Every structure is written in structure tokens, then in C-alpha cells.
Fold:
Amino acid sequence: MARAHHGPRFFAWYRVVPLALVLLLGTVSYLYSYAPSALLSYLYPLDYQEEIAASSARHTVDPMLVAAVIETESGWDPQAASRRGAQGLMQLMPETAQDMIDLGLVDGHTFHSDELDDPGTNIEFGCAYLAYLIDYFNGSIDSAIAAYNAGLSNVNDWTEQDTVLHNAITFPETQAYLIRVKNAWDRYQELYGRDFSS
Structure:
């Protein structure tokens, strides 16, 4: 006796797997967007508050932007080092740190460009460099963030090509970096903006 054919089964594997993936991604996105601050503060820690507060005040840079750069650059590892020679929390090149002294933006008697593994020293030079970039680009935070990753000359070239910086960036790494820093900046403002100094 032949079995009756009832049409395709709704819960066949080729339907369930994509639905499960969509559900999983939706849940993760929801939790990321509306997660309690305890979870977000675990994902976005804030260390070295005194050093960030002092240096960001000296150089008039938003401390939450500094925290976002640290999170993106080193994940709060003061011993981080890149293949190119960038060092510390804010991943600075020793030559960049020395430039900040030469420009008179950092006191070379107090802070030394060969001590970038020291968190306070690294944050001081990083804040000075961020302030320099923001000033160089006439207050454009996006341009400053992109230049922190890709260098001044590249950003100068990109801003000449398109008025919307993100459209002109030709390095996928820098496009991703700009998004990551700005997302982290938003999170740090949400989590710590009101009570950063407490």
C-alpha cells in the first residue's frame, strides 16, 4: 500500500538550519544592543582612569575616545606590540612619540619616548597624538581616527577624493578600524560618560 504524499515537510533540515541561524544572529544582535551594563562593561572595560583623565584633560581630548582607541588598538594590554614596532596601550611608534616632544606637545623631561610600555606614558603620548590629529583635520574626529590607523598622508589623499571620508578610504582595515573605534566610543560614553572620574 502506497503512503499518501502530503507535500514538502515544513521542518525539513534545509528550512530549519537557516531559520535557526537567523534566530541565533537575531538573539546575539538583540543582546548586544540591549545588554545590561554589567555585560557591556565586561566587553568594554575601563582601566587606567586616572591616567586617561589627566592626559585627556591636558590635551583636551574626550577621555571616552581615548578609551575607545585603547580598546581597539590593544584590548587594554600595556605590553602589546605590533610587527611594525607600535607599542603599548595606544600602539604608538617611538618616532611618533618623539615627534610629540619635538612639537612641544609633551613634556620630554617628564615623559620619555622610549618608555611606551608604561601605561601613563603611553596614554600621555597617545592623547597628544590624538589631539594633534584632531587639530590638524580642523576638528574632524573621523579623519583623526582614520589617520591614527593609516597615517596623515593617506587621509589627506582620501579627503581630496570624496567629501564623505568613509567612501574614499581605500584600506579595508582602516574602514573597519573607523567603525570599531566609533562603536567603542559610543559604548564608553553610554557606560562611563557620567561617572568617568568617580
About this structure: The chain has a mean pLDDT of 88. The chain has one domain: 43-192.
